[in-house]
Write a structure and sequence with these properties.
binds magnesium ion; four-stranded mixed sheet; seven-stranded parallel sheet; Rossmann fold; alpha/beta; globular
């Protein structure tokens, strides 16, 4: 059956890979809506290739710029802003919405899509990190599926498929460890954004590359996994595996461990979310195990990478604290990319923002959005008080 999809975040690294899969399996997928922010040229190329009915950009100016870039007489409906993203999320002919807008901005359109009864291929971590309880309850109520795009969650999802849920004891998320795994801690002060952007195994956007370097990416994934698989924080372990061959594991109560493996290519997980329960013939290369010789694992260093512990704290406390942590992280990462704060200050800004927060129990969507902007303001204030780099 042809699956109609809407891609929120089509010009980012996930979005481009989604469209790569669509172009290879045109008999399986049809693109109805594409939503981006400001990369007009890339979006215009995508529109010419995939012929969606609807395209969405950030502002009216971007919408006009996009119109001028398209060939004359193009029939695509161009929308912009929050209402535009919502329309792309709830397009009546769409079966599945790919949620790949980076950051907390992805939350509202994803919730709109769930409310409209769409299945979600979820790449946007913040949806579950900031509003996991709310979103999972809504997904159950609307009887839709949230299919993980993140390689670790896809791995767990694949390992537990067909197993008794009661037999699942815990999961083990693998982490590449980022580019500073071997760097001595006293050198961390000298890390520049360009060093952190050079990820050893995965080719990703800027925000997620910094999150990988601080291990916050793994922290966000722990919180995401808690909601996606209904686990307690104690049931989620993290192990560093820089080869990125084992994408994550599930441990059952008889002591059996199932691992999902493959080469580190995000298209495998993306394709599985898009095509589930089918598997697409991707013709991916398979790891050469004899060539690899061994698979190596090590404990994450929580002293060098305090963000992981901050995320476990947020995961245990729950309620509004993960949203606070996430917002502070977004602000701190942006400040680091703009060379306003040091690499080590990222964790400091997050921790101090979390310390200032008074937990609100059982937040609804508006509480989450309010908390998110409170935490951004707090983090900005904390950054202003830090010594300039
Ligand atoms: Mg991941």
């Amino acid at each position: 059956m042809m699956k109609n999809i809407s891609v929120l975040g089509s010009t980012g690294s996930i979005g481009k890979n989604v469209l790569d899969i669509v172009s290879r399996f045109p008999e399986s997928f049809s693109v109805k809506a594409l939503a981006a922010a400001t990369r007009i040229d890339e979006l215009a190329r995508q529109i010419e290739t995939f012929r969606p009915e609807m395209a969405v950009v950030l502002t009216k100016d971007h919408a006009n710029a996009l119109k001028n870039r398209l060939s004359p007489g193009h029939s695509v409906t161009i929308l912009y802003g929050d209402e535009g993203y919502k329309q792309a999320a709830i397009h009546p002919d769409v079966h599945m919405v790919v949620s790949a807008i980076v950051g907390a901005a992805g939350l509202v359109p994803t919730v709109a899509a769930i409310n409209a009864g769409k299945d979600i291929a979820l790449a946007n971590k913040e949806t579950l990190v900031t509003a996991g309880d709310y979103v999972m309850a809504l997904a159950r109520e609307k009887n839709i599926r949230i299919l993980p795009v993140d390689s670790e969650h896809s791995a767990v999802f694949q390992c537990i498929e067909g197993q008794s849920r009661k037999a699942l004891a815990k999961i083990i998320l693998t982490a590449s460890g980022g580019p500073f795994r071997k760097m001595p801690q006293d050198k961390f002060k000298t890390i520049r954004p360009e060093d952190a952007l050079a990820h050893p195994t995965w080719n990703m956007g800027k925000k997620i590359s910094i999150d990988s370097a601080t291990l916050m990416n793994k922290g966000l994934e722990v919180i995401e996994a808690k909601h996606l698989f209904d686990l307690s924080p104690e049931q989620i372990d993290v192990v560093v595996h820089s080869q990125s061959i084992v994408h994550s594991m599930a441990v059952f109560h008889d002591g059996s461990v199932l691992a999902q493996m493959g080469i580190p290519d995000m298209r495998a997980a993306i394709a599985y979310a898009m095509s589930w329960p089918e598997r697409l013939p991707l013709a991916m290369p398979v790891p050469d195990f004899a060539e690899l010789g061994s698979l190596v694992f090590e404990k994450p260093d929580r002293v060098k990478f305090p963000c992981l512990s901050l995320a476990y704290t947020a995961c245990r406390e729950g309620h509004t604290l993960p949203a606070v942590m996430n917002a502070a992280n977004e602000v701190a990462v942006q400040a680091f990319l703009e060379k306003k704060i040091s690499f080590v200050a990222i964790a400091e800004v997050i921790e101090r923002t979390m310390d200032k927060h008074l937990l609100e129990k059982k937040p609804d969507l508006l509480d989450i959005i309010r908390t998110d902007s409170w935490a951004r303001n707090q983090a900005e204030t904390i950054i202003k008080d830090l010594p300039r780099m």
